[in-house]
C-alpha cells in the first residue's frame, strides 16, 4: 500500500502504553490509538457505532477492543463490529518513524472520515 495523504504526528511510540487505548485529536476528529502486545500500532475512530462509547477506554483482547458502554467487540485492524452486533468504525493507517507515530490522513473534510458508512481496512506501516 502506498503511503498517501498527510502524516499527522500524534505521539511517541515509547510513550504509548501497551494494550491500553489513547485518545488523540486530529483536527476535530477523535481517534483511538492502540499499541498491541505485538508492538504494532493501530488507529480507529474513537466511537462505537452503537451508542458512541469512547473506544480508547475499552478493554483490549488480541486485535479487538470491547466498547466500555455495552461490550461490543470491534476489530482494531479492520474496524468491523463482531456478530451478532453489526456496524463498523473508520480505520486510519499508522506510520512509525524512529520513535514518532503518525496517522495518515487523506482528507479531514471527507465525509467518510467523519461518518463512515462502511469499513475499509487500512494497512498500518508498523515496525
TrEMBL record:
Coiled coil: none annotated. The keyword Magnesium does not apply. Residues 8-103 form the Rieske domain. It comes from Terrilactibacillus tamarindi. Keywords: 2Fe-2S, Iron, Iron-sulfur, Metal-binding, Nitrate assimilation, Oxidoreductase. The keyword Oxidoreductase applies. This is Nitrite reductase small subunit NirD. It comes from the Bacteria. InterPro entries: Rieske-like_NirD (IPR012748), Rieske_2Fe-2S (IPR017941), Rieske_2Fe-2S_sf (IPR036922). GO terms for biological process: nitrate assimilation. GO terms for molecular function: 2 iron, 2 sulfur cluster binding; metal ion binding; monooxygenase activity; nitrite reductase [NAD(P)H] activity; oxidoreductase activity, acting on paired donors, with incorporation or reduction of molecular oxygen. Pfam families: Rieske (PF00355).
Amino acid at each position: 500500500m502506498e503511503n498517501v495523504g498527510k502524516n499527522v504526528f500524534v505521539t511517541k511510540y515509547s510513550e504509548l502504553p501497551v494494550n491500553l487505548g489513547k485518545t488523540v485529536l486530529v483536527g476535530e476528529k477523535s481517534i483511538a490509538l492502540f499499541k498491541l502486545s505485538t508492538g504494532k500500532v493501530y488507529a480507529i475512530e474513537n466511537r462505537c457505532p452503537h451508542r458512541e462509547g469512547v473506544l480508547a477506554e475499552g478493554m483490549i483482547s488480541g486485535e479487538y477492543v470491547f466498547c466500555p458502554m455495552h461490550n461490543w467487540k470491534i476489530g482494531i485492524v479492520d474496524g468491523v463490529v463482531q456478530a451478532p452486533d453489526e456496524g463498523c468504525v473508520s480505520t486510519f493507517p499508522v506510520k512509525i518513524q524512529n520513535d514518532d507515530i503518525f496517522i495518515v490522513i487523506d482528507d479531514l473534510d471527507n465525509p467518510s472520515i467523519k461518518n463512515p458508512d462502511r469499513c475499509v481496512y487500512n494497512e498500518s506501516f508498523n515496525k
